[in-house]
Amino acid sequence: GRTMSSQGARAKVAAAVATVDEVGEAPKPPFSPAQQIGAIAPLGFFDPLGFTNVGDERGFRKLQAAELKHGRVAMMASIGAVGQHFIKFPWAEKVHGTFGAMNSGEG
Fold this sequence. Notes:
Elements lengths: L5 H11 L3 H4 L33 H30 L21
């Protein structure tokens, strides 16, 4: 039969066993929009038109920032629309509220 020296056997075992340092870190999973803050039950992740893609973090962040900006502008506009009912300029006291101003000569 074939016999191997103990040093030869150890060398083969040592070559076959990988250490943690040799393997390195596991690859990072791709960016998933469905795992971001805001995707919660009962609706979960909602993107019916498919604007976001898995792995496109930059595009997702751009759309997220745009959504926040537009939401804030819409909130300020709604305050302005309600405020027009209560706050009138002296030269426009006869003007009718938000959309009535379009139909009057004073607006």
